[in-house]
Each structure stands twice: as structure tokens, then as C-alpha cells.
């Protein structure tokens, strides 16, 4: 990949000098670069989408070079905006990176070129790989360091206890195995010890730090590594047992570094010489950006789906209730890691889109909120939004979407409100599982994402959950998390993630807290009815039936 930085006409560098931190947020459909000041006010930002590739049903790919190209576009675009405001680009003292997790990239060590398209986190092509390893666990088992083998449930339990994860299509080791099987270039590179593997953070850092005569840095942090099925959560080292199980070499893996330290510097372009000092996967970055830095604090990002993360402190919690154990962050190379439990909800905002595009019930999101506000309750209606099965904590791919309690009294307003309640009830189910797994009460739920723009939705969440819901005015929590990690690494602004008091003022302006207005009895009654509705939706689609 040659340089894609365009030559610019000479200009007079602005003399106004600020003190800012940048955050590169590479999401699933777009990338943005945001520049923050010491209070997390946004100074400038630049965003650009990149192409999505769906070569077959259930497949989702990205072109690795396009991921880097759009990164450069965002960095250069934000730098130009900064100049237009009269600031020198040297005002950006460091940057952090946050990224879509699990998306898998393979490239050549010798050439630096990608070997195939990246397989995106939500790609489902690897079901056969999952089935293969489930058969291996049943028949042969997983070999432990002492030479013993654990089979079946015992083998799965060991993997879950060490990695926090189940064998699933989501995680990057499974995707890499598919690449090795189906792309000869990847298999050849593996055999010749010329293969580099990484998630999007690793690929971007490699390209951002390479020069004409020196390869880029190949590294990652524990938040991304913990989504691979290859990291031992307990010692934050690559697991030789898991590498052997998947038939992979240690030499292909990135170096493990903490989430907050200076890794290197950008090698060219407007930000040449600026340090890269923070890395976190997007959901963990949102946890940090919401300042859920204390055990018992949690956040929910209400997007297309919803992702609830719950800080479990220095304890690795192995869920018995369908949640995933993960690294929340490691605030420095000599700092103990902070862990989290995570629950993924497949449908949140996408249910609103279904009301609009599938049922033609609403014109836009604004209409949805107005409609839901026309009634004080759902009139006894419950909507289980299992439009593609149920994820955490139910894990039922056969669950069917269900509206129950319909009467001649039901109106579109009741359906809109029931859709809001569905996201709130599902969040409560995940939170309840988290509290039981961690044996810790949720102090308050911090929120971000598109659905949080609705005051009604946030009040419904507080009323049904029985906990405070805290919504910041500035909701770019994912990017802010990366900025906090980077600035903390160089002690910019005095920020230090190991000392909460140093960041208390960050993004505190204008936050709103929604408090429960319901009684415990009312909440328990509504939750009982919701649970009954979920039970009636379960196992509706029995795969393999001929009926």
C-alpha cells in the first residue's frame, strides 16, 4: 500500500495553540475522528462512510485498504477543520483508537499487504467451523498443559473459564480458521511464518506507524484480544492451550500491550509525529467514556441492538446466566486490569426501523416518539422483539417475535410504547443476570446511542428497571473512551484513569438523571408479565422440523 496522503499547497500555519486529544473511532459502517478539549467539548470532527461487501447471504466483509484509506481521510479532514478554526495541528497532543471488535484481518509480514478481505464481526459464514470444534470437543477434547484432555461440557467449561467466551461465530479465532481453510494465500503465509493476524485496531496501527524502510507496529490491547478466544483472561497472555486447540502459531499474533500507554507515533500526514496512546474495543471504550470506572457501574449503548456492560472490578466473573466475561480495560502496563460482564441484545433500534419500513406505522423516529407519548401505558400489550431470535441472557435462536395482549383497544400508540418497553425490559433482564453473576448491585445505568435521544424511552427504562438512568449531554461516549485512555497515558489535562477524581469534570456538563417513579410492586408485576411473554415466544422456530 503506497502513500495516500495528497500533496497540499503551502499555507501559513495558524499560530493559535490549544491542548487537545484526538479519538479515532472505526465503526462497522463509518469512521470518525473527533478532537476533544479537557472537558470533553468537541472542537472538530470528521466522519466518512466506507463500502460494505455482502458476497453471499450471511456474509459481511470489509476491504482492509479501504479501512485505512478512510482513516487517513478522517485524520486529514479533521486537521483541516482545526486549521480553519485557527488552531495549529500541533494542538493535538496524542490520539486514541477504538474499533469494531472481532472483525478479522490477515496480512503478509513481508509485504504489509492484506491477504483477503476482512471478515466482519456479524458475519455468519463460520457456523461450520463452530460445529467442527464442537465435534472436536465431544470426541477428542481440549488438551491441557499437563497432557490431560477435557471433553464435552467439561471442555466447554474450561474454555469459558479461561477466555470468558463460548465457541461462536462472533470471535476472531474462528474467523481466522475459516480464512486459513478457504484462502490459499492465508494458508501459505501461515506455513511460511509470514502471516500477521489482528483485529481492526492492529491493522490500522500497523499502517499508521510504518515507514518506507520499516514495518509498522503489530500490537493490540486486552479488550480486543479478549474477543479472540485466544486470550487467557486471568493472566492477560495468549493461551498456548487455545492456540494448540485451533492449530495456530504464536508468531502470527500481535504483541499484547495495555489499553493506555504510548505505543508509537503516526508516521506521515498532517498528524505526523503525534503519539498513539490508547486502544479499546468500541463497547469497552463506551464503558470508559461513560466513566463506569467503579465496580457495580454499568452502561447500555442503545443502537441497532443494545450492548450492556457491567464493571466487575478486578474480578474475572464467569457467567452462569448467559453473559460474556471480558476485559473492560487495562489503564497502564503496570496496572491491574478491570473486567466486565457483557450482554448483547440483538434488537433495540432496529425494532423502530421495522415499525417504519416493515409496517409503515411511522414516518421517522420523531414520529415514533410522538406516537408512544400519546398513551400513558401499553394497555396490557407486550412486544417480545425476537425478530431474529433472542440473545443474552436467553440465547434462544428459535424464539419468535411476539405481541401478546392485543385487544380492540390497542392502537399504534400502544404498539410504539410497547416497542420502547421491550428494549427496557430486555435491558433489565441482562442487568438482573449481571447483578446475580457478580453479586453486586447496579448503582446506576449510564446510557448512550440513538434511542437515548428520547426522554420518554429513558424514563421508561428507569421506571421498569428501578434504577437511575444517567444520560450525558455529549453522547460520543465511544470516542471519548479512546480519548480518555490516550490522554491518561501521557497525563494530559491531569487525567488519570486510576484516579477517578481527575476525570469527574469530564463530560459532566448537562447530564440528566432519570429516576424511577414506579413502586416496587408495580415493577415486579410488569416484569412478571414480561417474563411470561418471553416464555411464550421461546422455541417457536424449531429448526429441522418438517412441519
Low-confidence stretches: 543-547
Look at the helices and sheets and give the structural class: alpha+beta
Distance between the termini: 54 Å
Overall mean confidence score, pLDDT? 91
How much strand content do the residues show?
Answer: 15-25%
Helical fraction equals 25-40%
Q: Identify the overall geometry.
A: globular
Molecular structure report:
With 547 residues, this protein is of the alpha+beta class. It has 15 helices and 25 strands. The protein has helices at residues 64-84, 127-139, 152-163, 172-182, 184-191, 200-209, 222-225, 240-246, 282-289, 349-357, 365-372, 412-438, 455-465, 477-489, 520-537, and strands at 20-26, 30-36, 42-49, 61-62, 92-99, 104-108, 118-119, 142-143, 149-150, 195-199, 219-220, 231-232, 237-238, 255-256, 260-265, 275-281, 298-302, 306-313, 324-329, 338-345, 382-384, 402-404, 444-448, 468-471, 512-514. The strands form 8 sheets. Strands 19-20-18-17-23-24-25 form a 7-stranded mixed sheet. Strands 3-2-1-5-16-15 form a 6-stranded mixed sheet, with helices on both faces. Strands 4-7 form a two-stranded antiparallel sheet. Helix 13 links the parallel strand 23 and strand 24. The protein is globular and about 75 Å long. Mean pLDDT is 91; it is low at 543-547.
Walk me through the topology.
Layout: E1 20-26, E2 30-36, E3 42-49, E4 61-62, H1 64-84, E5 92-99, E6 104-108, E7 118-119, H2 127-139, E8 142-143, E9 149-150, H3 152-163, H4 172-182, H5 184-191, E10 195-199, H6 200-209, E11 219-220, H7 222-225, E12 231-232, E13 237-238, H8 240-246, E14 255-256, E15 260-265, E16 275-281, H9 282-289, E17 298-302, E18 306-313, E19 324-329, E20 338-345, H10 349-357, H11 365-372, E21 382-384, E22 402-404, H12 412-438, E23 444-448, H13 455-465, E24 468-471, H14 477-489, E25 512-514, H15 520-537
Parallel strand pairs: 1-5, 5-16, 11-14, 17-23, 23-24
Antiparallel strand pairs: 1-2, 2-3, 4-7, 6-10, 8-9, 12-13, 15-16, 17-18, 18-20, 19-20, 21-22, 24-25
Helix pairs in contact: 1-6, 2-3, 4-5, 9-14, 11-12, 12-13
Amino acid at each position: 500500500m503506497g502513500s495516500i496522503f495528497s500533496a497540499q499547497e503551502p499555507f501559513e500555519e495558524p499560530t493559535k495553540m490549544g491542548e487537545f486529544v484526538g479519538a479515532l473511532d472505526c465503526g462497522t459502517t463509518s469512521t470518525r475522528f473527533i478532537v476533544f478539549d479537557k472537558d470533553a467539548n468537541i472542537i472538530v470532527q470528521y466522519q466518512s462512510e466506507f463500502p460494505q461487501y455482502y458476497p453471499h447471504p450471511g456474509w459481511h466483509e470489509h476491504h482492509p485498504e479501504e479501512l485505512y484509506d478512510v482513516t487517513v481521510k478522517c485524520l486529514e479532514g479533521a486537521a483541516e477543520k482545526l486549521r480553519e478554526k485557527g488552531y495549529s495541528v500541533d494542538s493535538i497532543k496524542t490520539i486514541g483508537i477504538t474499533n469494531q471488535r472481532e472483525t478479522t484481518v490477515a496480512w503478509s509480514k513481508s509485504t504489509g499487504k492484506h491477504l483477503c478481505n476482512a471478515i466482519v464481526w456479524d458475519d455468519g459464514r463460520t457456523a461450520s467451523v463452530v460445529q467442527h470444534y464442537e465435534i472436536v470437543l465431544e470426541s477428542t477434547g481440549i488438551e491441557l498443559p499437563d497432557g490431560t484432555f477435557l471433553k464435552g461440557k467439561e471442555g466447554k467449561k474450561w474454555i469459558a473459564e479461561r477466555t470468558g467466551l463460548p465457541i461462536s461465530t462472533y470471535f476472531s479465532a474462528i474467523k481466522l480458521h475459516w480464512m486459513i481453510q478457504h484462502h490459499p494465500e492465508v494458508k501459505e503465509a501461515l506455513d511460511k511464518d509470514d502471516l500477521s493476524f489482528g483485529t481492526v485496531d492492529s491493522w490500522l496501527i500497523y499502517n499508521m506507524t510504518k515507514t518506507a524502510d520499516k514495518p509498522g507496529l503489530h500490537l493490540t490491547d486486552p479488550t480486543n484480544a479478549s474477543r479472540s478466544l485466544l486470550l487467557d483472561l486471568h493472566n492477560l497472555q495468549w493461551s498456548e492451550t487455545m492456540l494448540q486447540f485451533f492449530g495456530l502459531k504464536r508468531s502470527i499474533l500481535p504483541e499484547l500491550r495495555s489499553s493506555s500507554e504510548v505505543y508509537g507515533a503516526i508516521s506521515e500526514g498532517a498528524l505526523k509525529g503525534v503519539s498513539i496512546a490508547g486502544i479499546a474495543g468500541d463497547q469497552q471504550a463506551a464503558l470508559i467514556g461513560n466513566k463506569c470506572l467503579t465496580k457495580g457501574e454499568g452502561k447500555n449503548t442503545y443502537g441497532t441492538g443494545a450492548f450492556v456492560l457491567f464493571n466487575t472490578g478486578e474480578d474475572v466473573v464467569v457467567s452462569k446466566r448467559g453473559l460474556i466475561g471480558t476485559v473492560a480495560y487495562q489503564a497502564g502496563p503496570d496496572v491491574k486490569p478491570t473486567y466486565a460482564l457483557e450482554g448483547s441484545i440483538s434488537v433495540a433500534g432496529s425494532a423502530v426501523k421495522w415499525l417504519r419500513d416493515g409496517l409503515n406505522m411511522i414516518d421517522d423516529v420523531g414520529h415514533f416518539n410522538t406516537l408512544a407519548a400519546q398513551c400513558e401505558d401499553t394497555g396490557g400489550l407486550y412486544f417480545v422483539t425476537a425478530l431474529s431470535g433472542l440473545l443474552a441472557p436467553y440465547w434462544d435462536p428459535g424464539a419468535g417475535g411476539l405481541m401478546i395482549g392485543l385487544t380492540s383497544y390497542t392502537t399504534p400508540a400502544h404498539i410504539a410504547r410497547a416497542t420502547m418497553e421491550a428494549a427496557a425490559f430486555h435491558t433489565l433482564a441482562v442487568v438482573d443476570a449481571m447483578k446475580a453473576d457478580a453479586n453486586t448491585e447496579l448503582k446506576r445505568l449510564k446510557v448512550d446511542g440513538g434511542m437515548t435521544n428520547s426522554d420518554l424511552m429513558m424514563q421508561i427504562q428507569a421506571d421498569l428497571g428501578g434504577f437511575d438512568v444517567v444520560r450525558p449531554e455529549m453522547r460520543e461516549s465511544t470516542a471519548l473512551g479512546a480519548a480518555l485512555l490516550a490522554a491518561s497515558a501521557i497525563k494530559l489535562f491531569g487525567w488519570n484513569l486510576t484516579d477517578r477524581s481527575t476525570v469527574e469534570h469530564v463530560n459532566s456538563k448537562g447530564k440528566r438523571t432519570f429516576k424511577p417513579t414506579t413502586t416496587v410492586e408495580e415493577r415486579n408485576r410488569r416484569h412478571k408479565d414480561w417474563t411470561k411473554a418471553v416464555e411464550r415466544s421461546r422455541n417457536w422456530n424449531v429448526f429441522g422440523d418438517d412441519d
